Amino acid sequence: MPVTRRASLVNHPQSGVVVTAFVLPSHLYQADSVGILSMKRLLPALLLLATALGAPAAPAASSTAPRPNLVFIFADDWGWGDLSSHGSTWLRTPHLDGLAAAGIDFGQFNVLNPVCSPSRTAVMTGQYPARWGVHQHFAHPAQNRQRDMPDWLDPRATTLPGLLRAAGYRTGHFGKWHLTNRQTPGAPRPEAYGIDEWAVFNGGAGWPAAKVGDTAANTVAFIRAHRDRPFFINVWLHESHTPHAPSAEAMERWKHLDEQRRVYAAVISDGDAAVGRILDALREAGVENNTLVIFSSDNGPENTGRVKRPAYTEGDSGVTGYDTYYSVGETGGLRGRKRHLFEGGVRVPFIVRWPGRAPAGIKNDTTVITAVDLLPTLCAAAGVALPDGYRSDGENLLPALTGRSVARTKPVFWEWRGGQAEPDGWPRLAVRDGDWKLLLTHDAKRVSLHRLTADRAEARDESAAQPDVVARLSRLALEWKASLPARPPEGCFAPADQIVPPPAEKKSAPRKAKAAGAANPP
Description:
By secondary structure, the protein is an alpha/beta fold. The protein folds into two domains: 47 residues, no CATH class; 340 residues, Alkaline Phosphatase, subunit A, CATH 3.40.720. Helices cover 23% and strands 16% of the residues. It has twelve helices and 18 strands. Helix 6 packs parallel to helix 8.
């Protein structure tokens, strides 16, 4: 006879033990004939005790439980295969491997654009970047006009840090910004998007620019200052974007590799070390066990340059270092790279550590999660209700962050308006629904269909064998495309009389104050 469940969860506030009371149908037991102790009283107590002492249960939600701190570490051009825990045979990422061992490593996470600014827009807003007119990276205003883009993300957008700040979180943003461009005057500063404290590079014209190498240190200082209240931090790393400026220490460590791999391995080591410093700071501040940490990347790895060039200084970040000849990141067998809608361009690492909530050492290769899911999911984790009138393109997948395999209910859409070099740059649109992903041109005259659960490398085009699937997904993609705004939002353009003409299209010579290890090719 099955057990009849009566009570739901009972939470003991001091011990944190969660127990469930069960009561059996009364005909299964009799009162003790002597009357010393009735089984009617003893059996439920025994069942209650057995449940309490058995396998640990997930903690129940409580209005008195402290709200979790949230740390989102977003690397730059860091490929799915650029972790030793993802099978790299020559890169070493001990801190990220440890993060994965202590939490959940998701194998099917997608960003929603294969380049920087639109990918970050999706994270910040929980909506497809095309809804805000952000199709490629923010560049000089003249180039933005050519691309029919605004000059910055519309500050009227609902944002993740804005919602959290309104709910009492202290919010910080350290590292890359690139929701505008350093050549753009009049761009709203991070406060307009819900950021309390910030130190960024790739910001707007006239902004104070943080040093790229200070991202971890600035994050650590914020953690120490706000350990006694809930906080949210965007940590947007420079690694492994060009220019590559590895530390001398990391270069020495990898001197046994060929010159291309040596530079890239050193850059990855520096990024991994930055993650380690942040994780150490959480532990030292005593907030590790109440902090949800996520590591991911904005898109797939950069394409490897064919020509070895001397070190140069990039204006946006102020970094002196090596060019794309040393960009030898890996996709872990996925097709395509940065600027491609194939999985190598949009499937990236996604590691979640949440002590006491996310089980340790789990690999989730079934749940499809995307960048637009982060806003509703992290707001749910923080107990923050979404505002009336706001509609996310994502969904709340919080159960997946606590160890459950969750079936996605919404399709996923992409649009790409950048270069279309063959063989992997031709798709303009893509849609995934269930196991199927369709890539297509804007007129749907060219398509490629893949069942990702059986073909993660997108090596087999099944469009000819699945015309009904092609027709259904093509319709979804074209209807989604038709729903997007035709023009960028009003009021998001730099004042014309303040715009400085763009510099000549050439890279500047290295500065005298060079980054460590970046003076000359190895």
